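Weekly structure sync - notes
Attendees: PM, LS, DV (DV joined late)
Agenda: review two folding runs queued last week.

Item 1: First target. Sequence and C-alpha coordinates pasted below for the record.
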Amino acid sequence: MTLIKWRIIMLIEQLKKVTLVAQELGLKQPTVTFHMKSMEEEWGMPLFEMKTGRILLTDAGRRLHRYALKMLALQEEAAREMRLRGGSRKRLSLLADAACSSIMASFAAFALEPAGYGIEWLRIEEGSGMHADIRIRERQETADADWLPLPDADLRLAVSREWAQAAGIQAAQAALESGKPWIAPAAGTRLRSQILTWAAARGLDLEEGHAVPDAVMAASLAAAGLGVAVVPIFSDPRFAQAATCVLPDPGRMLLLPLNGIPPYRLELKLGAGVPSEARLAISSWLQSPPE
Protein backbone atom coordinates (compact mmCIF):
# COMPACT_ATOMS: atom_id res chain seq x y z
CA MET A 1 0.00 0.00 0.00
CA THR A 2 1.40 3.36 -1.04
CA LEU A 3 0.58 6.71 0.55
CA ILE A 4 -1.51 7.66 -2.46
CA LYS A 5 -3.70 4.58 -1.89
CA TRP A 6 -4.13 5.41 1.79
CA ARG A 7 -5.16 8.94 0.79
CA ILE A 8 -7.68 7.61 -1.73
CA ILE A 9 -9.36 5.53 0.98
CA MET A 10 -9.52 8.54 3.30
CA LEU A 11 -10.89 10.83 0.58
CA ILE A 12 -13.47 8.31 -0.66
CA GLU A 13 -14.86 8.23 2.87
CA GLN A 14 -14.97 12.05 2.97
CA LEU A 15 -16.07 12.96 -0.57
CA LYS A 16 -17.86 9.84 -1.86
CA LYS A 17 -17.16 10.79 -5.49
CA VAL A 18 -14.25 9.53 -7.58
CA THR A 19 -14.24 12.76 -9.58
CA LEU A 20 -13.86 14.84 -6.39
CA VAL A 21 -11.12 12.55 -5.08
CA ALA A 22 -9.25 12.93 -8.37
CA GLN A 23 -9.56 16.71 -8.19
CA GLU A 24 -8.32 16.77 -4.59
CA LEU A 25 -5.26 14.67 -5.51
CA GLY A 26 -4.59 16.40 -8.82
CA LEU A 27 -4.99 13.11 -10.72
CA LYS A 28 -7.13 11.96 -13.61
CA GLN A 29 -10.24 9.95 -12.73
CA PRO A 30 -9.05 6.74 -14.50
CA THR A 31 -5.87 6.84 -12.40
CA VAL A 32 -7.88 6.92 -9.16
CA THR A 33 -10.11 4.09 -10.44
CA PHE A 34 -7.01 2.07 -11.31
CA HIS A 35 -5.64 2.48 -7.76
CA MET A 36 -9.02 1.47 -6.29
CA LYS A 37 -9.09 -1.74 -8.32
CA SER A 38 -5.46 -2.39 -7.46
CA MET A 39 -6.23 -2.14 -3.73
CA GLU A 40 -9.11 -4.60 -4.02
CA GLU A 41 -6.84 -7.03 -5.83
CA GLU A 42 -4.11 -6.52 -3.23
CA TRP A 43 -6.43 -7.25 -0.30
CA GLY A 44 -8.52 -9.84 -2.13
CA MET A 45 -11.91 -8.36 -1.21
CA PRO A 46 -14.25 -5.52 -2.25
CA LEU A 47 -13.40 -2.23 -0.55
CA PHE A 48 -15.75 0.11 -2.45
CA GLU A 49 -19.39 -0.04 -3.52
CA MET A 50 -21.71 2.17 -5.54
CA LYS A 51 -24.95 3.30 -3.86
CA THR A 52 -27.35 5.99 -5.11
CA GLY A 53 -24.68 7.57 -7.26
CA ARG A 54 -22.05 7.66 -4.49
CA ILE A 55 -18.94 5.56 -3.88
CA LEU A 56 -18.97 4.18 -0.34
CA LEU A 57 -16.55 2.03 1.62
CA THR A 58 -17.61 -1.53 2.32
CA ASP A 59 -17.24 -2.95 5.82
CA ALA A 60 -13.73 -4.09 4.88
CA GLY A 61 -13.02 -0.65 3.43
CA ARG A 62 -14.12 1.06 6.65
CA ARG A 63 -11.83 -1.18 8.65
CA LEU A 64 -8.97 -0.25 6.34
CA HIS A 65 -9.95 3.41 6.65
CA ARG A 66 -8.97 3.37 10.34
CA TYR A 67 -5.47 2.30 9.37
CA ALA A 68 -5.36 4.86 6.55
CA LEU A 69 -5.91 7.64 9.08
CA LYS A 70 -3.13 6.31 11.28
CA MET A 71 -0.72 5.87 8.37
CA LEU A 72 -1.34 9.40 7.10
CA ALA A 73 -1.00 10.85 10.60
CA LEU A 74 2.37 9.11 10.95
CA GLN A 75 3.43 10.43 7.55
CA GLU A 76 2.48 13.97 8.62
CA GLU A 77 4.45 13.55 11.85
CA ALA A 78 7.51 12.35 9.93
CA ALA A 79 7.26 15.33 7.57
CA ARG A 80 7.00 17.73 10.52
CA GLU A 81 10.01 16.19 12.24
CA MET A 82 12.16 16.45 9.13
CA ARG A 83 11.15 20.10 8.67
CA LEU A 84 11.99 20.85 12.29
CA ARG A 85 15.50 19.49 11.85
CA GLY A 86 16.19 22.40 9.52
CA GLY A 87 19.17 22.81 7.23
CA SER A 88 21.69 23.64 9.92
CA ARG A 89 24.63 21.35 10.52
CA LYS A 90 24.73 22.41 14.16
CA ARG A 91 22.15 20.45 16.13
CA LEU A 92 21.05 20.16 19.73
CA SER A 93 19.19 17.12 21.00
CA LEU A 94 15.69 17.68 22.36
CA LEU A 95 13.66 15.34 24.53
CA ALA A 96 10.08 16.48 25.12
CA ASP A 97 8.69 14.20 27.81
CA ALA A 98 5.21 15.63 27.41
CA ALA A 99 1.99 14.95 25.57
CA CYS A 100 2.64 17.79 23.11
CA SER A 101 6.14 16.86 21.92
CA SER A 102 5.58 18.08 18.35
CA ILE A 103 4.60 21.58 19.51
CA MET A 104 7.59 21.75 21.84
CA ALA A 105 9.93 20.58 19.07
CA SER A 106 8.53 23.33 16.85
CA PHE A 107 9.07 25.88 19.64
CA ALA A 108 12.70 24.80 20.04
CA ALA A 109 13.28 25.02 16.30
CA PHE A 110 11.88 28.59 16.23
CA ALA A 111 13.93 29.67 19.23
CA LEU A 112 17.22 28.19 17.99
CA GLU A 113 16.97 29.30 14.36
CA PRO A 114 18.46 32.81 14.96
CA ALA A 115 21.56 31.19 16.49
CA GLY A 116 21.98 28.87 13.49
CA TYR A 117 21.00 25.66 15.29
CA GLY A 118 18.59 22.91 14.39
CA ILE A 119 17.27 20.16 16.65
CA GLU A 120 17.64 16.41 16.88
CA TRP A 121 14.29 15.26 18.23
CA LEU A 122 14.74 12.30 20.54
CA ARG A 123 12.07 9.83 21.62
CA ILE A 124 11.33 8.64 25.12
CA GLU A 125 11.73 5.02 24.04
CA GLU A 126 15.23 5.74 22.73
CA GLY A 127 16.43 5.97 26.33
CA SER A 128 18.40 9.15 25.59
CA GLY A 129 16.76 11.38 28.15
CA MET A 130 19.80 11.80 30.35
CA HIS A 131 21.90 12.94 27.38
CA ALA A 132 19.48 15.43 25.81
CA ASP A 133 20.72 19.02 25.49
CA ILE A 134 17.21 20.37 26.02
CA ARG A 135 14.50 18.68 28.06
CA ILE A 136 10.85 19.67 28.27
CA ARG A 137 8.43 17.94 30.61
CA GLU A 138 5.04 18.39 32.19
CA ARG A 139 5.46 20.71 35.16
CA GLN A 140 6.02 18.96 38.46
CA GLU A 141 4.19 19.72 41.69
CA THR A 142 7.44 20.67 43.45
CA ALA A 143 9.38 23.54 41.86
CA ASP A 144 12.93 22.77 40.75
CA ALA A 145 15.36 25.67 40.32
CA ASP A 146 16.99 24.04 37.28
CA TRP A 147 13.70 23.97 35.36
CA LEU A 148 12.22 27.06 33.70
CA PRO A 149 8.43 27.36 33.55
CA LEU A 150 6.95 27.74 30.07
CA PRO A 151 3.75 29.68 29.28
CA ASP A 152 0.53 27.92 30.23
CA ALA A 153 -1.72 26.36 27.60
CA ASP A 154 -5.51 26.18 27.62
CA LEU A 155 -7.00 22.76 26.89
CA ARG A 156 -9.53 22.52 24.06
CA LEU A 157 -11.54 19.68 22.59
CA ALA A 158 -10.56 19.04 18.96
CA VAL A 159 -13.30 17.66 16.69
CA SER A 160 -13.71 17.30 12.96
CA ARG A 161 -15.27 20.49 11.59
CA GLU A 162 -17.30 18.49 9.06
CA TRP A 163 -18.70 16.16 11.72
CA ALA A 164 -19.40 18.94 14.22
CA GLN A 165 -21.33 20.96 11.66
CA ALA A 166 -23.35 17.94 10.53
CA ALA A 167 -24.13 16.95 14.13
CA GLY A 168 -24.78 20.51 15.32
CA ILE A 169 -22.12 20.17 18.04
CA GLN A 170 -21.29 23.47 19.73
CA ALA A 171 -20.10 22.52 23.23
CA ALA A 172 -17.34 20.21 24.42
CA GLN A 173 -19.53 18.24 26.83
CA ALA A 174 -22.11 17.57 24.10
CA ALA A 175 -19.34 16.36 21.81
CA LEU A 176 -18.00 14.01 24.48
CA GLU A 177 -21.51 12.68 25.13
CA SER A 178 -22.12 12.06 21.42
CA GLY A 179 -20.51 8.61 21.38
CA LYS A 180 -17.43 9.61 19.40
CA PRO A 181 -14.41 7.72 20.80
CA TRP A 182 -11.78 9.58 22.78
CA ILE A 183 -8.30 9.79 21.24
CA ALA A 184 -6.43 9.67 24.52
CA PRO A 185 -2.95 10.76 25.64
CA ALA A 186 -0.55 8.06 26.75
CA ALA A 187 -1.02 6.49 30.18
CA GLY A 188 0.91 8.18 32.97
CA THR A 189 0.89 11.68 31.47
CA ARG A 190 -0.37 14.65 33.45
CA LEU A 191 -2.51 15.64 30.48
CA ARG A 192 -4.39 12.35 30.61
CA SER A 193 -4.89 12.72 34.36
CA GLN A 194 -6.24 16.28 33.93
CA ILE A 195 -8.74 15.17 31.30
CA LEU A 196 -9.99 12.18 33.31
CA THR A 197 -10.36 14.27 36.49
CA TRP A 198 -12.32 16.93 34.58
CA ALA A 199 -14.57 14.32 32.95
CA ALA A 200 -15.22 12.49 36.23
CA ALA A 201 -16.33 15.74 37.92
CA ARG A 202 -18.97 16.10 35.20
CA GLY A 203 -20.08 12.48 35.20
CA LEU A 204 -18.60 11.81 31.76
CA ASP A 205 -17.46 8.28 30.98
CA LEU A 206 -14.93 8.68 28.18
CA GLU A 207 -14.78 5.78 25.74
CA GLU A 208 -11.14 5.40 24.74
CA GLY A 209 -10.86 4.54 21.05
CA HIS A 210 -7.14 5.15 20.57
CA ALA A 211 -4.17 6.13 22.71
CA VAL A 212 -1.45 8.19 21.03
CA PRO A 213 1.79 9.65 22.42
CA ASP A 214 1.42 13.15 21.02
CA ALA A 215 -1.37 15.74 21.04
CA VAL A 216 -0.66 16.76 17.44
CA MET A 217 -1.22 13.20 16.22
CA ALA A 218 -4.41 13.09 18.31
CA ALA A 219 -5.56 16.36 16.72
CA SER A 220 -4.81 14.99 13.24
CA LEU A 221 -6.93 11.91 13.89
CA ALA A 222 -9.72 14.07 15.32
CA ALA A 223 -9.60 16.39 12.30
CA ALA A 224 -10.01 13.33 10.08
CA GLY A 225 -13.16 12.32 11.98
CA LEU A 226 -11.74 9.35 13.88
CA GLY A 227 -12.79 10.65 17.30
CA VAL A 228 -12.35 13.60 19.67
CA ALA A 229 -9.10 14.74 21.27
CA VAL A 230 -7.99 17.24 23.90
CA VAL A 231 -5.10 19.45 22.78
CA PRO A 232 -3.13 22.27 24.46
CA ILE A 233 -3.59 25.69 22.83
CA PHE A 234 -1.13 28.44 23.79
CA SER A 235 -2.39 32.02 24.00
CA ASP A 236 1.21 33.27 24.02
CA PRO A 237 1.70 34.23 20.34
CA ARG A 238 5.25 32.85 20.21
CA PHE A 239 4.04 29.39 21.16
CA ALA A 240 0.88 29.78 19.12
CA GLN A 241 3.03 30.38 16.06
CA ALA A 242 5.04 27.25 16.75
CA ALA A 243 1.86 25.23 17.25
CA THR A 244 0.37 26.52 14.00
CA CYS A 245 3.23 24.89 12.09
CA VAL A 246 2.38 21.40 13.34
CA LEU A 247 -1.35 21.33 14.17
CA PRO A 248 -3.86 20.36 11.46
CA ASP A 249 -5.36 22.98 9.15
CA PRO A 250 -8.01 24.93 11.14
CA GLY A 251 -10.35 24.42 8.21
CA ARG A 252 -10.53 20.73 9.14
CA MET A 253 -10.88 21.09 12.90
CA LEU A 254 -12.93 22.91 15.51
CA LEU A 255 -11.52 23.65 18.97
CA LEU A 256 -14.25 23.68 21.63
CA PRO A 257 -13.61 25.19 25.11
CA LEU A 258 -13.36 22.85 28.09
CA ASN A 259 -14.78 24.99 30.88
CA GLY A 260 -13.32 24.45 34.33
CA ILE A 261 -10.23 22.42 33.41
CA PRO A 262 -6.85 23.64 34.75
CA PRO A 263 -4.26 24.94 32.27
CA TYR A 264 -1.63 22.58 30.91
CA ARG A 265 1.81 23.47 32.28
CA LEU A 266 5.28 22.61 31.04
CA GLU A 267 8.85 23.38 32.04
CA LEU A 268 12.24 23.39 30.30
CA LYS A 269 15.80 22.54 31.31
CA LEU A 270 18.99 23.32 29.37
CA GLY A 271 21.88 20.90 29.70
CA ALA A 272 25.34 22.04 30.80
CA GLY A 273 26.72 21.37 27.33
CA VAL A 274 24.41 23.75 25.48
CA PRO A 275 26.58 26.40 23.75
CA SER A 276 26.23 29.93 25.06
CA GLU A 277 24.77 31.32 21.80
CA ALA A 278 22.06 28.62 21.77
CA ARG A 279 21.35 29.15 25.47
CA LEU A 280 21.01 32.89 24.86
CA ALA A 281 18.71 32.32 21.87
CA ILE A 282 16.27 30.23 23.91
CA SER A 283 16.43 32.49 26.96
CA SER A 284 15.88 35.60 24.84
CA TRP A 285 12.99 33.98 23.00
CA LEU A 286 11.32 33.03 26.29
CA GLN A 287 11.92 36.41 27.93
CA SER A 288 10.96 38.58 24.97
CA PRO A 289 7.54 40.20 25.40
CA PRO A 290 4.75 38.61 23.36
CA GLU A 291 3.86 40.59 20.26
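Item 2: Second target, run right after the first with the same settings.
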Amino acid sequence: MGKLNSFIKLEGTLNDLTFYKSQGNYLVRTKGGVPKKRIMSDPAFARTRENFSEFSTNAKSGKLIRDSIGILLNRAKDSKLSSRMLQLLNQIKDLDSSSKRGKRKVSIGLNTAAGKALLKGFDFNGRASLANVLHAPYTLDSTTGVITIADLVTAQQLLYPEGATHVNLRCGMVKLDFDSGIFANSYSTDTILPLDDTAASVVLTPTVVPGGSGFQLNLLLIEFYQEVNGIQYPLRSGNYNVLNLIDII
Protein backbone atom coordinates (compact mmCIF):
# COMPACT_ATOMS: atom_id res chain seq x y z
CA MET A 1 0.00 0.00 0.00
CA GLY A 2 1.32 3.44 -0.90
CA LYS A 3 0.07 7.00 -0.57
CA LEU A 4 -0.94 8.68 -3.83
CA ASN A 5 1.20 11.80 -4.18
CA SER A 6 -0.55 13.50 -7.08
CA PHE A 7 -2.65 16.56 -7.81
CA ILE A 8 -5.28 14.16 -9.21
CA LYS A 9 -7.33 12.41 -6.50
CA LEU A 10 -8.97 9.26 -7.80
CA GLU A 11 -10.96 6.28 -6.59
CA GLY A 12 -11.34 3.11 -8.63
CA THR A 13 -9.26 0.60 -10.57
CA LEU A 14 -7.00 1.17 -13.58
CA ASN A 15 -5.22 -1.85 -15.02
CA ASP A 16 -3.86 -3.69 -11.93
CA LEU A 17 -3.80 -0.62 -9.66
CA THR A 18 -6.55 0.24 -7.18
CA PHE A 19 -6.97 3.85 -5.99
CA TYR A 20 -9.01 4.45 -2.85
CA LYS A 21 -9.55 6.86 0.05
CA SER A 22 -8.97 5.86 3.66
CA GLN A 23 -9.06 8.12 6.72
CA GLY A 24 -8.76 11.22 4.60
CA ASN A 25 -5.79 9.96 2.56
CA TYR A 26 -5.74 8.83 -1.07
CA LEU A 27 -3.91 5.51 -1.39
CA VAL A 28 -2.87 3.16 -4.17
CA ARG A 29 -2.28 -0.60 -4.13
CA THR A 30 -2.36 -3.59 -6.40
CA LYS A 31 -5.45 -5.75 -6.42
CA GLY A 32 -3.73 -8.21 -4.10
CA GLY A 33 -2.55 -5.57 -1.64
CA VAL A 34 1.21 -6.06 -2.26
CA PRO A 35 3.44 -3.61 -0.31
CA LYS A 36 4.65 -0.57 -2.23
CA LYS A 37 8.34 -1.34 -1.56
CA ARG A 38 8.01 -4.67 -3.31
CA ILE A 39 6.08 -3.16 -6.21
CA MET A 40 8.85 -0.62 -6.80
CA SER A 41 11.72 -3.14 -6.69
CA ASP A 42 10.56 -6.67 -7.50
CA PRO A 43 11.16 -7.66 -11.17
CA ALA A 44 7.82 -9.49 -11.04
CA PHE A 45 6.09 -6.10 -10.83
CA ALA A 46 7.82 -4.49 -13.80
CA ARG A 47 4.52 -4.34 -15.67
CA THR A 48 2.86 -2.64 -12.67
CA ARG A 49 5.59 -0.01 -12.57
CA GLU A 50 5.11 0.59 -16.29
CA ASN A 51 1.36 1.04 -15.77
CA PHE A 52 1.92 3.45 -12.90
CA SER A 53 4.38 5.53 -14.93
CA GLU A 54 1.93 5.82 -17.82
CA PHE A 55 -0.92 6.58 -15.43
CA SER A 56 1.04 9.54 -14.06
CA THR A 57 1.79 10.82 -17.57
CA ASN A 58 -1.87 10.46 -18.60
CA ALA A 59 -3.04 12.34 -15.51
CA LYS A 60 -0.69 15.24 -16.28
CA SER A 61 -1.91 15.34 -19.89
CA GLY A 62 -5.53 15.49 -18.72
CA LYS A 63 -4.81 18.32 -16.32
CA LEU A 64 -2.98 20.20 -19.06
CA ILE A 65 -6.00 19.94 -21.36
CA ARG A 66 -8.34 21.18 -18.63
CA ASP A 67 -6.01 24.04 -17.67
CA SER A 68 -5.65 25.11 -21.30
CA ILE A 69 -9.40 25.59 -21.69
CA GLY A 70 -9.34 28.21 -18.96
CA ILE A 71 -12.45 30.22 -18.15
CA LEU A 72 -14.83 28.09 -20.21
CA LEU A 73 -14.37 24.96 -18.10
CA ASN A 74 -16.15 26.16 -14.97
CA ARG A 75 -19.24 26.96 -17.02
CA ALA A 76 -19.93 23.32 -17.93
CA LYS A 77 -18.26 20.34 -16.27
CA ASP A 78 -19.23 17.40 -14.08
CA SER A 79 -17.74 15.93 -10.89
CA LYS A 80 -16.31 12.91 -12.71
CA LEU A 81 -14.56 14.88 -15.45
CA SER A 82 -11.02 13.99 -14.33
CA SER A 83 -11.66 10.25 -14.16
CA ARG A 84 -13.66 10.20 -17.44
CA MET A 85 -10.87 12.02 -19.22
CA LEU A 86 -8.20 9.79 -17.69
CA GLN A 87 -9.93 6.67 -19.01
CA LEU A 88 -10.15 8.20 -22.48
CA LEU A 89 -6.54 9.34 -22.51
CA ASN A 90 -5.48 5.85 -21.45
CA GLN A 91 -7.08 4.54 -24.66
CA ILE A 92 -5.36 7.23 -26.70
CA LYS A 93 -2.00 6.45 -25.08
CA ASP A 94 -2.38 2.83 -26.20
CA LEU A 95 -2.26 4.07 -29.81
CA ASP A 96 1.38 5.11 -29.35
CA SER A 97 3.05 2.30 -31.28
CA SER A 98 6.57 3.77 -31.27
CA SER A 99 7.37 3.96 -27.53
CA LYS A 100 8.22 1.21 -25.07
CA ARG A 101 5.73 0.16 -22.40
CA GLY A 102 5.89 2.60 -19.51
CA LYS A 103 6.94 5.41 -21.87
CA ARG A 104 3.90 5.65 -24.14
CA LYS A 105 2.43 9.14 -24.47
CA VAL A 106 -0.97 10.69 -25.10
CA SER A 107 0.63 13.21 -27.45
CA ILE A 108 1.95 10.47 -29.75
CA GLY A 109 -1.38 8.64 -29.68
CA LEU A 110 -3.11 11.88 -30.66
CA ASN A 111 -0.95 12.12 -33.76
CA THR A 112 -2.95 9.21 -35.18
CA ALA A 113 -6.32 9.60 -36.85
CA ALA A 114 -7.81 7.12 -34.38
CA GLY A 115 -6.47 9.11 -31.41
CA LYS A 116 -7.98 12.36 -32.66
CA ALA A 117 -11.29 10.59 -33.32
CA LEU A 118 -11.42 9.40 -29.70
CA LEU A 119 -10.99 12.90 -28.25
CA LYS A 120 -13.03 14.80 -30.85
CA GLY A 121 -16.55 15.44 -29.57
CA PHE A 122 -15.63 15.04 -25.90
CA ASP A 123 -18.23 16.60 -23.58
CA PHE A 124 -16.68 18.15 -20.48
CA ASN A 125 -20.09 17.94 -18.81
CA GLY A 126 -21.04 14.28 -19.04
CA ARG A 127 -24.63 15.08 -18.06
CA ALA A 128 -25.20 17.40 -21.02
CA SER A 129 -23.97 16.40 -24.45
CA LEU A 130 -23.85 18.74 -27.43
CA ALA A 131 -25.83 16.24 -29.49
CA ASN A 132 -28.71 16.29 -26.98
CA VAL A 133 -28.81 20.05 -26.37
CA LEU A 134 -28.15 21.56 -29.82
CA HIS A 135 -30.38 20.38 -32.66
CA ALA A 136 -29.00 22.59 -35.41
CA PRO A 137 -26.10 22.22 -37.85
CA TYR A 138 -22.95 24.30 -37.36
CA THR A 139 -19.74 24.87 -39.28
CA LEU A 140 -16.18 25.41 -38.10
CA ASP A 141 -13.51 27.35 -39.96
CA SER A 142 -10.44 25.57 -38.60
CA THR A 143 -8.11 28.34 -39.80
CA THR A 144 -9.81 31.16 -37.91
CA GLY A 145 -11.66 29.19 -35.24
CA VAL A 146 -14.98 30.78 -36.26
CA ILE A 147 -18.08 28.71 -35.51
CA THR A 148 -21.25 29.57 -37.42
CA ILE A 149 -24.81 28.44 -36.68
CA ALA A 150 -27.08 29.73 -39.41
CA ASP A 151 -30.71 30.62 -38.69
CA LEU A 152 -30.78 29.24 -35.15
CA VAL A 153 -34.29 29.18 -33.69
CA THR A 154 -33.43 28.94 -30.03
CA ALA A 155 -36.83 27.87 -28.67
CA GLN A 156 -37.06 25.04 -31.19
CA GLN A 157 -33.48 23.87 -31.68
CA LEU A 158 -32.17 23.90 -28.13
CA LEU A 159 -33.02 21.69 -25.17
CA TYR A 160 -33.10 24.08 -22.22
CA PRO A 161 -33.96 23.96 -18.52
CA GLU A 162 -37.22 25.12 -17.00
CA GLY A 163 -37.04 28.78 -16.08
CA ALA A 164 -34.41 29.68 -18.68
CA THR A 165 -35.12 32.80 -20.71
CA HIS A 166 -31.83 33.22 -22.59
CA VAL A 167 -28.95 31.20 -23.97
CA ASN A 168 -25.31 32.19 -24.21
CA LEU A 169 -23.05 30.76 -26.91
CA ARG A 170 -19.29 31.14 -26.93
CA CYS A 171 -16.37 29.47 -28.67
CA GLY A 172 -12.81 28.80 -27.62
CA MET A 173 -9.63 28.07 -29.56
CA VAL A 174 -6.56 26.51 -27.91
CA LYS A 175 -3.03 25.76 -29.06
CA LEU A 176 -1.51 23.11 -26.80
CA ASP A 177 1.95 21.51 -26.74
CA PHE A 178 1.97 18.43 -24.49
CA ASP A 179 5.74 18.04 -24.50
CA SER A 180 6.54 21.57 -23.31
CA GLY A 181 3.32 22.09 -21.33
CA ILE A 182 2.86 25.46 -23.06
CA PHE A 183 -0.56 26.54 -24.29
CA ALA A 184 -2.33 29.63 -25.58
CA ASN A 185 -6.07 30.22 -25.80
CA SER A 186 -8.57 32.68 -27.16
CA TYR A 187 -12.33 33.07 -26.83
CA SER A 188 -15.18 34.77 -28.59
CA THR A 189 -17.34 37.31 -26.80
CA ASP A 190 -20.62 36.15 -25.28
CA THR A 191 -23.54 35.87 -27.69
CA ILE A 192 -26.71 36.01 -25.58
CA LEU A 193 -30.01 35.33 -27.31
CA PRO A 194 -33.59 35.11 -26.01
CA LEU A 195 -35.23 31.71 -26.09
CA ASP A 196 -37.92 32.42 -28.67
CA ASP A 197 -39.04 31.52 -32.19
CA THR A 198 -36.98 34.15 -33.99
CA ALA A 199 -34.26 32.89 -36.33
CA ALA A 200 -30.82 34.35 -35.65
CA SER A 201 -27.51 33.69 -37.37
CA VAL A 202 -24.79 33.08 -34.79
CA VAL A 203 -21.14 33.79 -35.64
CA LEU A 204 -18.65 33.08 -32.86
CA THR A 205 -15.18 34.53 -33.53
CA PRO A 206 -12.13 34.15 -31.25
CA THR A 207 -10.48 37.47 -30.52
CA VAL A 208 -7.17 36.16 -31.91
CA VAL A 209 -5.82 32.95 -33.40
CA PRO A 210 -3.50 31.46 -30.74
CA GLY A 211 0.07 30.94 -31.83
CA GLY A 212 2.55 28.27 -30.88
CA SER A 213 3.19 24.62 -31.63
CA GLY A 214 1.21 21.48 -30.89
CA PHE A 215 -2.45 20.58 -31.25
CA GLN A 216 -5.33 22.93 -31.99
CA LEU A 217 -8.50 22.45 -29.95
CA ASN A 218 -11.81 24.08 -30.92
CA LEU A 219 -14.56 24.27 -28.33
CA LEU A 220 -18.21 25.31 -28.17
CA LEU A 221 -19.94 26.45 -24.97
CA ILE A 222 -23.72 26.62 -24.52
CA GLU A 223 -25.08 27.87 -21.19
CA PHE A 224 -28.46 29.12 -20.03
CA TYR A 225 -29.60 32.23 -18.18
CA GLN A 226 -32.71 33.53 -16.49
CA GLU A 227 -33.51 37.21 -16.84
CA VAL A 228 -34.94 38.92 -13.75
CA ASN A 229 -35.60 42.67 -13.84
CA GLY A 230 -33.25 43.11 -16.77
CA ILE A 231 -30.37 41.18 -15.21
CA GLN A 232 -29.06 37.88 -16.61
CA TYR A 233 -28.47 35.22 -13.97
CA PRO A 234 -26.58 32.04 -15.00
CA LEU A 235 -28.56 28.91 -14.16
CA ARG A 236 -25.45 26.71 -13.92
CA SER A 237 -27.65 23.77 -14.85
CA GLY A 238 -25.66 20.57 -14.75
CA ASN A 239 -28.10 18.79 -17.04
CA TYR A 240 -28.06 21.36 -19.85
CA ASN A 241 -24.88 23.48 -19.95
CA VAL A 242 -22.55 22.13 -22.63
CA LEU A 243 -18.84 22.41 -23.31
CA ASN A 244 -17.80 20.28 -26.27
CA LEU A 245 -14.46 19.76 -28.00
CA ILE A 246 -15.81 19.93 -31.53
CA ASP A 247 -12.45 19.38 -33.24
CA ILE A 248 -8.78 18.66 -32.63
CA ILE A 249 -6.17 19.25 -35.31
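Discussion on item 2: The radius of gyration is 21 Å.
Action: LS to circulate a short write-up before next sync.
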